């Protein structure tokens, strides 16, 4: 029987181009609006990745090089350099060394700045009116710019100690250049200066120069750098005791020295205690303290450089100016940008770390709760004595909304015609242009009515079907879905309980032979169905799936039918039913086979609509948080759980993968890999149990590791895209996915099964 509500569309005249339908025009506008939001979502992900990489680089470059060269030949190094003073420069391209004058000390500090120890060193130097020359690690400068500003303003001198503290003798020329330039940018951003002083990591006295490092010093000398070595090493990094540090840092009587201490790189409490004792001892011996620039100024002929003797205890402005240069132009702005980016990374990474702990606890808690409640649900609903009440045997109405479903509609209707429960079938053709309605009519199946309407969207089609329904129970499904013969019978049995207003069925992926289909199969069985078991017992089911759900017609009309307010009309009406006081349950034995998207593009469109629609529905029903009585259970329990598990946790779930990669690159590859495998093992256990409950074959679980690496990342991007759309106020329409019609009822299923009615 056919009940047309509007005349069939007139075919376009020959040679004329068919005007696009309302749905097609809306889809085109929606696609145009979403492109900027997709780009914004990707930019957000890229920004997070860059922040993580920057933070990792500040700590140790990818594959951090920890090699330190020892025992290499120095045959190519000039003898006067090996035997010369600790200050090496290349005026006119000629290697020249300068010694520290007698009774003079150049206090140098390596590896800073450190937020704990460097400020204490600066306080001691200021107290004794002594200058220091600090050779700074660029990554530390970028992380602690305020300390460097204080250091320079106090009158101390700074030099480059590379950006990541690597042995430059092992590095390429480009790496050496990058290490120097990045440190200079960090100094420019932190204190507005650059410097001509340099000290290589793992170098001490000039006799440490070898054939591998000598070209580095020559190259830097040609660029105007002065390389600074030492005469005396306090060896404070060994923590030998305060008296030993003071003793080892003391030069032979009367001799000048460039002396090495450390203000970072480890626990430096002994250095802090030894430094004032050392200064007092040397002053008592008649020594003065100066900077590297002060020494070089003293060695220059009169009139050719800064005034000689300018540094007695403090380096003069002229002396410091010889090493420090005001940063200008691009260097200054790039340096400030670097420091700002590092500040963001320094704030973001700890925040993300804390978020990771919260997400990890939430995820593991969810897994535990799902396993416990799913087991209880399965045992409760499969007891021999379990019953909802007297068997429901009366006929029901099955509503099939259809828009351009020519590939699937025949299989859908033929599967319904084999139902073991009495049904009427209402096909609501939503303005199809591919002959869907004609195909449905031509089948001549008993009990099938075709209702035509102008293209208005799925909610309107479902509401139209409800208006035409003859029976008190209505089953709603998608036009691409196939039911087993016993599906409807199982699905309607819970209505024996008069408190039940809706029942969610068990949607299965029919086209699971492809990789994408197999991934979705795992997701459906593990995620959706375990979730529904949990929510059923908690009495806060958030969604009746569009592919298979049953409703009391009275309940649907009571809440105003399917709403156009959101893209997730199924979630919207489910929450509305809860708020109206109806109970919503899950029937695991009512199976429906649906065609999952076959391409990544189609999958993106579907999941984008789902996730965005869910957010819309949650926002629409946000006042359920304050609902009182039994009808307020969803607001008190369900809404917080859905927000936590379907929005907040998935949005931050990428942290697990981001930090796994981060840890593999910058922390401990083995430990990070083991942690990731442990999480995967927990998920496999949950998935295996879900497959057991649903009677599924375990072989699909072999694809789960790859699903975690690829498929899950796409779902994260979809959710981020949805959040961006929600925050920017975007709107979408019901979108039609391309179908192939390859899904049919699996042979031998649904004829017996485990009954609940």
What does this structure look like?
The protein is an alpha/beta fold and 757 residues long. It has 24 helices and 21 strands. It has a 9-stranded mixed β-sheet with strand order 1-16-15-14-17-20-19-21-18, sandwiched between helices. Helix 8 (242-248) packs across helix 9 and helix 17 crosses helix 23 (669-694). The chain is elongated.
Alpha-beta content class: alpha/beta
* N-to-C CA distance: 31 Å
Question: What about the largest sheet?
Answer: 9 strands, mixed
Shape: elongated
Taking pLDDT < 50 over at least 5 consecutive residues as the criterion, the unreliable ranges are 1-18, 26-33, 301-321, 747-757
Mean pLDDT: 84
Q: What is the oligomeric state here?
A: single chain
Count the beta strands.
Answer: 21
Main sheet strand line-up: 1-16-15-14-17-20-19-21-18
| Alpha plus pi helix count | 24
Helix fraction by DSSP (H/I, runs of at least 4)? 40-55%
Radius of gyration: 37 Å
Q: Approximately what portion of the residues adopt beta-strand conformation?
A: 5-15%
Any descriptors?
757 residues, 21 strands, alpha/beta, disordered C terminus
Any chance you could write out the topology, listing elements then pairs?
Elements: E1 2-4, H1 22-59, H2 79-82, E2 87-89, E3 96-98, E4 104-112, H3 118-127, E5 133-136, H4 138-143, H5 145-153, E6 157-160, H6 173-191, E7 193-195, E8 197-198, H7 214-222, E9 226-228, E10 232-233, H8 242-248, E11 257-262, H9 269-284, E12 288-290, H10 292-299, H11 317-323, E13 324-326, H12 329-381, E14 396-402, H13 409-417, E15 423-430, H14 436-442, E16 448-453, H15 458-468, E17 473-477, E18 482-483, H16 487-492, E19 500-509, H17 515-538, E20 548-552, H18 553-558, H19 569-579, E21 583-594, H20 600-620, H21 633-652, H22 654-666, H23 669-694, H24 704-728
Parallel strand pairs: 1-16, 4-5, 4-11, 4-12, 5-6, 8-9, 10-11, 14-15, 14-17, 15-16, 19-21
Antiparallel strand pairs: 2-3, 2-9, 7-13, 17-20, 18-21, 19-20
């Amino acid at each position: 029987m056919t009940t047309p509500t509007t005349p069939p569309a007139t075919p376009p005249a020959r040679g004329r181009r068919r005007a696009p339908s309302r749905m097609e025009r809306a889809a085109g506008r929606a696609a145009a609006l979403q492109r900027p939001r997709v780009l914004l979502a990707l930019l957000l992900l890229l920004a997070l990745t860059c922040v993580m990489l920057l933070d990792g680089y500040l700590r140790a470059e990818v594959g951090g090089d920890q090699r330190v060269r020892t025992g290499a030949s120095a045959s190519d190094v000039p003898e006067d350099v090996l035997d010369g003073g600790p200050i090496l420069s290349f005026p006119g391209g000629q290697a020249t060394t300068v010694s520290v004058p007698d009774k003079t000390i150049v206090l140098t500090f390596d590896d800073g700045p450190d937020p704990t120890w460097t400020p204490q060193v600066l306080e001691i130097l200021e107290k004794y009116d002594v200058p220091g020359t600090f050779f700074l690690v660029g990554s530390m400068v970028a992380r602690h710019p305020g300390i460097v500003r204080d250091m320079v303003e106090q009158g101390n001198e700074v030099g480059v100690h590379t950006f990541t503290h690597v042995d430059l003798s092992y590095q390429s020329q480009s790496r050496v250049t990058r290490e120097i330039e990045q440190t200079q940018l960090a100094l420019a951003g932190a204190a507005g200066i650059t410097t001509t002083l340099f000290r290589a990591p793992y170098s001490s006295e000039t006799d440490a120069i070898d054939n591998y490092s000598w070209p580095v010093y020559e190259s830097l000398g040609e660029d105007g750098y002065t390389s600074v070595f030492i005469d005396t090493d306090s060896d404070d990094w060994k923590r030998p005791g305060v008296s030993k540090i003071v003793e080892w840092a003391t030069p032979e009587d009367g001799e000048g020295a460039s002396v090495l201490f450390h203000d970072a790189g480890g626990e430096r409490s002994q250095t802090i205690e030894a430094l004032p004792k050392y200064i007092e001892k040397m002053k008592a011996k008649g020594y003065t303290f100066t900077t590297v620039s002060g020494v070089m100024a003293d060695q220059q002929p009169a009139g050719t450089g800064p005034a000689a003797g300018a540094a007695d205890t403090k380096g003069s402005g002229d002396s410091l100016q010889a090493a420090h240069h005001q940063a200008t132009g691009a260097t200054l702005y790039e340096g400030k940008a670097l420091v700002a980016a590092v500040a963001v990374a320094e704030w973001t990474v700890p925040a993300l770390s804390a978020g990771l702990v919260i997400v990890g606890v939430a995820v593991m808690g969810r897994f535990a709760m799902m396993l416990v409640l799913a087991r209880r649900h399965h045992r409760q609903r499969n007891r021999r004595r379990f019953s909802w009440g007297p068997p429901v045997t009366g006929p029901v109405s099955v509503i099939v909304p259809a828009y351009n479903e020519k590939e699937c509609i025949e299989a859908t209707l033929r599967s319904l015609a084999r139902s073991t429960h009495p049904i009427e079938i209402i096909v609501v053709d939503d303005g199809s242009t591919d002959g869907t309605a004609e195909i449905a009519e031509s089948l001549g199946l008993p009990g099938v009515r075709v209702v035509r309407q102008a293209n208005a969207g799925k909610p309107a089609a479902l509401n139209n079907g409800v208006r035409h329904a003859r029976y008190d129970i209505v089953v709603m499904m998608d036009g691409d879905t196939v039911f087993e013969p016993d599906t409807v019978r199982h699905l309607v049995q819970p209505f024996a309980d008069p408190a039940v207003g809706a029942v969610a069925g068990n949607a299965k992926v029919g086209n699971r032979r492809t990789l994408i289909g197999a991934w979705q199969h795992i997701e459906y069985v593990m995620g959706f169905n375990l979730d529904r078991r949990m929510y059923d017992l908690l009495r806060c089911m958030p969604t009746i799936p569009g592919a298979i759900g049953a409703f009391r017609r009275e309940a649907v009309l009571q809440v105003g039918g399917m709403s156009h307010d959101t893209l997730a009309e199924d979630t919207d009406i489910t929450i509305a039913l809860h708020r109206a006081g109806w109970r919503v349950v899950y029937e695991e034995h009512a199976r429906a086979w649906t065609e999952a998207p076959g391409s990544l593009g189609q999958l993106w469109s579907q999941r984008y609509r789902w996730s965005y629609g869910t957010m819309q529905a949650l926002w629409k029903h946000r006042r359920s948080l304050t609902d009182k009585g039994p009808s307020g259970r969803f607001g008190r329990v369900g809404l917080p759980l859905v927000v936590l598990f379907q929005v907040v946790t998935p949005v931050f779930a990428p942290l697990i993968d981001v930090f796994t990669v981060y840890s593999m690159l910058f922390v401990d590859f083995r430990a990070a890999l083991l942690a990731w495998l442990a999480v995967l093992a927990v998920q496999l256990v949950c998935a295996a149990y879900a497959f057991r409950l649903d009677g599924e074959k375990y072989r699909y679980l072999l694809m789960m590791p790859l699903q975690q690496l690829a498929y899950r990342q796409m779902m994260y991007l979809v959710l981020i895209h949805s959040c961006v759309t929600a925050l920017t106020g975007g709107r979408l329409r019901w979108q039609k996915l391309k179908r192939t019609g390859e899904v049919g009822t699996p042979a031998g299923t649904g004829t017996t099964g485990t009954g609940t009615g």
